[in-house]
Amino acid sequence: MTQIFQKIVIYNKYFKDDIQPQSNVRRPRTLQEYKMMLVNDYIERHRIKQIKSTKLIMPTSNINIASGNSANLNKLFAFSKR
Predict the structure, then answer these.
(1) Nearest one of 38, 17, 15, 44 to 26, comparing CA atoms
(2) Which positions ≥6 away from 66 have C-beta within 8 Å?
(3) Distances from the Cα of 49 to the Cα of 44, 73, 82, angstroms
(4) pLDDT (tens digit per residue) in 39-60
(5) Do 46 and 40 form a contact (C-beta atoms < 8 A)?
(6) Where are the chain's structural domains?
(7) What does each C-alpha distance from 69 to 25, 42, 72, 73, 79 come to in angstroms?
(8) pTM (2 decimals)?
Protein backbone atom coordinates (compact mmCIF):
# COMPACT_ATOMS: atom_id res chain seq x y z
CA MET A 1 0.00 0.00 0.00
CA THR A 2 2.84 2.38 0.76
CA GLN A 3 4.45 1.76 -2.64
CA ILE A 4 1.28 2.90 -4.39
CA PHE A 5 1.17 5.99 -2.20
CA GLN A 6 4.84 6.72 -2.98
CA LYS A 7 4.17 6.41 -6.71
CA ILE A 8 1.26 8.82 -6.45
CA VAL A 9 3.38 11.32 -4.51
CA ILE A 10 6.19 11.08 -7.08
CA TYR A 11 3.75 11.43 -9.97
CA ASN A 12 2.11 14.47 -8.40
CA LYS A 13 5.51 16.01 -7.70
CA TYR A 14 6.83 15.77 -11.25
CA PHE A 15 3.71 15.82 -13.41
CA LYS A 16 1.38 18.22 -11.60
CA ASP A 17 1.97 20.98 -14.16
CA ASP A 18 1.21 18.81 -17.19
CA ILE A 19 -1.74 19.92 -19.23
CA GLN A 20 -4.66 17.62 -18.80
CA PRO A 21 -6.71 16.89 -21.93
CA GLN A 22 -9.90 18.87 -21.92
CA SER A 23 -12.96 17.84 -23.80
CA ASN A 24 -14.09 20.94 -25.61
CA VAL A 25 -17.72 20.33 -26.54
CA ARG A 26 -19.41 23.13 -28.41
CA ARG A 27 -22.93 23.69 -27.17
CA PRO A 28 -24.96 26.37 -28.88
CA ARG A 29 -27.35 28.33 -26.71
CA THR A 30 -29.83 29.28 -29.40
CA LEU A 31 -31.13 27.88 -32.64
CA GLN A 32 -29.36 30.66 -34.54
CA GLU A 33 -26.01 29.72 -33.02
CA TYR A 34 -26.63 26.09 -33.95
CA LYS A 35 -27.33 27.03 -37.57
CA MET A 36 -24.20 29.16 -37.73
CA MET A 37 -22.18 26.30 -36.25
CA LEU A 38 -23.44 23.94 -38.95
CA VAL A 39 -22.63 26.44 -41.69
CA ASN A 40 -19.13 27.01 -40.32
CA ASP A 41 -18.51 23.26 -40.08
CA TYR A 42 -19.64 22.78 -43.68
CA ILE A 43 -17.38 25.59 -44.89
CA GLU A 44 -14.43 24.15 -42.96
CA ARG A 45 -14.96 20.65 -44.41
CA HIS A 46 -15.23 22.09 -47.92
CA ARG A 47 -12.03 24.09 -47.44
CA ILE A 48 -10.15 21.02 -46.20
CA LYS A 49 -11.46 18.97 -49.11
CA GLN A 50 -10.07 21.53 -51.54
CA ILE A 51 -6.68 21.49 -49.86
CA LYS A 52 -6.33 17.70 -49.76
CA SER A 53 -5.52 16.12 -53.08
CA THR A 54 -7.03 12.74 -53.81
CA LYS A 55 -5.14 12.32 -57.07
CA LEU A 56 -1.72 10.75 -57.36
CA ILE A 57 0.39 12.84 -59.68
CA MET A 58 2.93 10.78 -61.63
CA PRO A 59 5.50 12.39 -63.91
CA THR A 60 5.21 10.86 -67.39
CA SER A 61 8.21 12.56 -68.98
CA ASN A 62 10.67 9.81 -67.97
CA ILE A 63 8.56 6.78 -68.91
CA ASN A 64 9.94 5.16 -72.07
CA ILE A 65 8.21 2.42 -74.01
CA ALA A 66 10.24 0.12 -76.24
CA SER A 67 9.46 0.54 -79.88
CA GLY A 68 9.34 -2.29 -82.39
CA ASN A 69 8.17 -5.87 -82.03
CA SER A 70 7.33 -6.67 -78.42
CA ALA A 71 7.67 -10.45 -78.98
CA ASN A 72 11.45 -10.15 -78.94
CA LEU A 73 11.46 -8.80 -75.38
CA ASN A 74 11.18 -12.33 -73.99
CA LYS A 75 14.80 -13.02 -74.99
CA LEU A 76 15.87 -10.83 -72.08
CA PHE A 77 14.29 -13.24 -69.59
CA ALA A 78 15.26 -16.66 -70.96
CA PHE A 79 16.48 -18.01 -67.63
CA SER A 80 14.03 -20.91 -67.52
CA LYS A 81 15.37 -22.42 -70.79
CA ARG A 82 18.77 -23.23 -69.30
Answers:
(1) 38
(2) 73
(3) 9, 45, 56
(4) 999 999 998 888 766 666 776 6
(5) no
(6) 26-50
(7) 67, 55, 6, 8, 21
(8) 0.38
